[in-house]
Amino acid sequence: MAGTRGRSHRDLSGEIAADATQYGFFQAVRLLSLAAPGKRRGPLPEKLRFRTLATLSFPPSELTRYQPAEAESGAPDELGVAFMGLTGPSGVLPTSYTELLIERRQHYRDTALHGFFDLFSHRAVSLFYGAWRKYRFWLAAEAGETEGFSRNLLDLAGLGLSRLRDRLGGDEGLDETLFIYYAGLLSQKPLSSQALVTLIEGFFDVRAELGQFAGQWMTVPRDEQSQLGQSGCELGLSAFAGSRIWDRQTKVELRLGPLRRARFDALLPGGAGADALQQLLQFALGHGLACDVRLVLDKRDTPKPVLDEAAPLRLGGNAWLVAAMPKSDPDEMSYTLLH
User: Fold this and answer.
1) Cβ–Cβ < 8 Å for 174, 210
2) What are the domain boundaries of the chain?
3) Residue 315 CB neighbours (<10 A)
4) Exposure pattern of 226-244 as b/e (b: 16+ CB <10 Å)?
5) Do residues 278 and 337 touch, judged by C-beta distance below 8 A?
6) Half-sphere exposure of 5 (CA within 13 A, CB side)
């Protein structure tokens, strides 16, 4: 049956069975491993067995045949290999052993000795494939297996602890694989503004801009305010008037958008997207910077000022008193994400 893009899914196992000689050994075994249901014996499907040739003819390819077992028969799937083994044209045993197998098969229809040799050939080929796969970490990740290389990258990103990953992930949180992808950026502390924008655009698939030195009012505790008769109150040096000061070094403003309505609503305060964004910024920035978020709504999705239970409006959030589509994307929605 055709998929959503109008293309039918290919039966690669059937194609290998039809003509295994068109596939390389590693490619074929990898595809069969991904397609095989049920349990695995290490990197290989549990039912796959490697067979060697009982001939001295020069092999035209690495593989000779693939014979899948019938359903519910209990028999293993067989994949014929010609590039290594105990016997056959590329066998490590003397040629006389292969000649003996040919003689017993032709004169006595006896394949018991060949099957015995294939026990050891299968083990050798399995170890050969396992050694090839061991140092190609992406194959285990492709199959959805737990492998050490990804854990090492998470360690570099500062996410080696499983509890920390669970806190950042959650039910609708951040994708762990993206932390692996951006491990190089996350390992750099402190993060540059461009690195932070790259992280946000990669995690949330939105356009982001970061305004630096946004500034904020900071309340000064009473015991630290300048007072007459107190030491350290020199005009032009350390004295200031008032109970708060304007600081431009500890706050940034993040501008996201234009956003479609569903993404915009998710990034509003209390939404799943806003919670995930807060977790990411807290991890990336630490506790030294505050952050305001400004959401820009795509003007095509500007809601009409009509009360609707199915699509409720929030005053100061996603409600605008407009009669027609605005000429520019509304960007009035702003809130403090990190204090």
Assistant:
1) no
2) 12-142, 146-188, 207-212+250-339, 216-248
3) 6
4) eeeeeeeeeeeeeeeeeee
5) yes
6) 3
Three-state DSSP at 263 gives helix
Backbone angles phi, psi at 143, to 5 degrees: -85, 0
Q: CA angle, 336 as apex, 330 and 339 as ends, to 5°? A: 165
The C-alpha atoms of residue 186 and residue 10 are separated, in whole angstroms, by 39
Tell me the two tokens of residue 174. Answer: 């951040």
3-state DSSP call for residue 246? strand
DSSP-based three-state secondary structure for 83: coil
φ/ψ of 222, rounded to 5, equals -60, -40
Instruction: Give the β-pairing of 290-297 and 251-259.
Output: parallel
CA atoms within 13 A on the CB side of 209: 9
Instruction: DSSP letter for 22, please.
Output: G
Residues, the chain, total? 339
Structure tokens at 89: 């044209």
Q: Give the pTM.
A: 0.72
Taking only the tens of pLDDT, the chain with its 339 residues reads 455 555 667 888 899 999 999 999 999 999 999 887 765 556 788 889 999 999 999 888 999 999 998 877 889 999 999 999 999 999 999 999 999 999 999 999 999 999 999 999 999 999 999 999 988 888 888 887 777 788 888 888 888 777 667 667 655 568 888 888 999 999 888 899 999 999 999 999 999 999 999 989 999 998 888 887 777 788 878 888 889 989 999 999 999 999 999 999 999 999 999 999 999 999 999 888 999 999 999 999 998 888 777 777 887 788 888 878 888 999 999 999 998
Collapsing DSSP states into helix, strand and coil, what is residue 242?
coil
